[in-house]
């Protein structure tokens, strides 16, 4: 019986370690001074990201943030696996971890795992946003419009570079069938 107990304790420790927030590197930039959650709420098209297993290969992706009465945020991720397939949805929950700025969140799509989320910048009219993670291994370019002006996209990549992100890893998400196979796209 003691061997089973050790295995269970070890498994529990591993699971709890996976739930812990990532430590913020000393050189990680401070988040925005203040994010207006009402203005940030709503629909965002995922123009680009650093692809990772959950989002890799998805097309026509967007997120919707909705404020809840309990102070948390619904995080709805919509995607297609191909343009000729039906849209699917994953439902997550977000919590603001820095109420002074509202720019640092933690998000959960699968219990018991939480994921850190940092809003680095938003456009003056909340028409675009760049979002990242303390590890700099995850990044997103969001837009209220499904297509982004190429000059603005390059400018946002430069902002990510100034924050220490490897912008060579950031790839556009195909939003239209003609995007498939084009340079710079997943």
Q: Give the percentage of residues in beta strands.
A: 25-35%
Quaternary structure annotation:
single chain
CATH class: Mainly Beta
- How many domains? 1
- Cα-based radius of gyration, to the nearest Å: 18 Å
Percent helix range: 10-25%
In whole angstroms, how far apart are the ends? 50 Å
Helices and strands, in order, run as HHEEEEEEEEHE
Major β-sheet strand ordering = 1-2-3-4-5-6-7-8
Mean pLDDT figure: 89
Overall CATH architecture:
Beta Barrel
Overall, the morphology is globular
In CATH terms, what is the fold-level topology? Lipocalin
> Stretches where pLDDT falls below 50 for ≥5 residues?
5-21
Number of strands: 9
The major sheet is characterized as: 8 strands, antiparallel, barrel
SSE class: alpha+beta
Number of helices: 3
CATH superfamily: Calycin beta-barrel core domain
Task: Walk me through this protein's architecture.
The chain has 186 residues and is an alpha+beta fold. It has a single domain, classed as Lipocalin. It contains three helices and nine strands. The protein has an eight-stranded antiparallel barrel. A hairpin with a 7-residue loop joins strand 3 and strand 4. The longest helix has 18 residues. It is globular and about 40 Å long. The termini are far apart. The relative contact order is 0.18. About 9% of the residues have low confidence.
């Amino acid at each position: 019986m003691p061997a089973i107990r050790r295995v269970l304790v070890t498994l529990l420790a591993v699971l709890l370690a996976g739930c812990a927030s990532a430590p913020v590197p000393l050189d990680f930039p401070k988040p925005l001074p203040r994010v207006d959650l009402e203005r940030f709420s709503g629909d965002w098209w995922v123009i680009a990201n650093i692809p990772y297993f959950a989002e890799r290969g998805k097309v026509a992706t967007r997120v919707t943030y909705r404020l809840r009465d309990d102070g948390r945020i619904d995080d709805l991720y919509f995607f297609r696996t191909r343009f000729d397939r039906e849209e699917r949805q994953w439902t997550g929950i977000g919590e603001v971890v820095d109420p002074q700025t509202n720019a640092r969140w933690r998000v959960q799509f699968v219990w018991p795992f939480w994921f850190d989320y940092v809003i680095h910048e938003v456009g003056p009219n909340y028409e675009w946003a760049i979002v990242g993670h303390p590890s700099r291994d995850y990044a997103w370019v969001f837009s209220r419009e499904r297509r982004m002006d190429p000059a603005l996209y390059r400018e946002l990549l430069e902002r990510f570079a100034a924050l220490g992100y490897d912008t060579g890893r950031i790839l556009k998400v195909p939003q239209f069938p003609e995007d498939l196979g084009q340079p710079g796209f997943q």
